[in-house]
Amino acid sequence: MADRSNGVEGIERFAARRRFAGIIALLLAALAVIVVLHIAFGRTMLSMEEVVKSLFNVTDNKGHRHIVWNLRLPRVLVAIAAGAMLGLAGAILQTVMRNPLIEPGLVGVSAGAVLSVVLAMHYWPQALLANGGISWIALLGGIVAVVMIYWLNGQRGNSASRLALTGVVATSILQSATSLLLLRKQEGLSSILLWNFGSLNGRVWDHWNHLWPWGLSLLLLSMLLARRASLLRLGEETAAGLGLSVNRTKLLLLLVAAALTAASVSVVGAIGFVGLIGPHIASQLVGKNPLLMFPASALLSAVLLTAADWAGQSVTLTLTLPGMQHHMSNLPVGAVTTLLGAPFFLYLLRKSLVRKGGGSI
């Protein structure tokens, strides 16, 4: 009987890995298609052949090469990296808090990073000019917010549900503080508002070079912690019984999620709901085992943000913000993800309430 049970478990593990590999392959193919479409379509339309030739530098058209290599390709790469980082941060937070309604924008991480950067813009602008200054400032703000939330929650036992609630309250406070700062000092208000809302407009190779080392190092660190995160899914008492230092592991994972979010915010602003939609769909596709869910969430969220930015480029707005009257701009990607994410959040909320018989979350 034991041999038969082991054999069945082995077959199930093999089937799960095969399914995971197939889903990753499909997501990579979808991402490749969206990247080509994103590069091809814009104010200057390029054919697929022109895109491929420009990417491989086998064309004599310098204008096409400039559009592809200096304008569109870095923007797409930044979208991929930022989407993957936000999706991975969302997956980590949902695992730690055991709540599918949680994402970086709802637990104080994004709000803390944004507030720290806005403070620096107003009172210490020279710090932002330093190499990597904005990332370090955003990282500091995100980590301070997470540590404060964890400490406040720890006063009453550090339960996952209370941690989520504390994060939502902290987000409201931090966002209010940011709004007060913007109202008090309105110099550069338009650019700060667009960045705060989340945008990929104007992203170039410097932004990519700034973002990818954070993304790669934090992805590797997340995968090293994934096995510990899988023990948290068993419940805190069970995980502690298996020898896991529960509080230390939760804090480490929260700090990684904060770093992923803050690094992304420093480059593309506070883009919402990517860290909610991507991990939720990924968990439906590959299950909730962090060893599979973390990479799937990152890749699916990269596809989502790249597609959202491509969709946003088809809409042109005339801005009427102070200092930017009659300025033409594409629809910020943060607006697209909000339009997608808000109904998705309400759907998940309703689903959660129905499952619990109409009780509170």
Order of strands in the sheet with most strands: 1-2
> What is the second-level CATH architecture?
Orthogonal Bundle
Given helix and strand content, the structural type is mainly alpha
- Note the beta-strand portion: under 5%
Write out key terms for the chains shown.
two-stranded antiparallel sheet; mainly alpha; ABC transporter involved in vitamin B12 uptake, BtuC; globular; 361 residues
What do these coordinates show?
This protein is an all-alpha fold and 361 residues long. The protein has a single domain (78-316, 332-349), classed as ABC transporter involved in vitamin B12 uptake, BtuC (Orthogonal Bundle). It contains 14 helices and 2 strands. Strands 1-2 form a two-stranded antiparallel sheet. Strand 1 and strand 2 (327-330) form a beta hairpin. Helix 2 crosses helix 3 (62-97), helix 4 (109-123) packs across helix 6 and helix 9 packs antiparallel against helix 11 (246-268). 42% of the residues are buried. The mean pLDDT is 83.
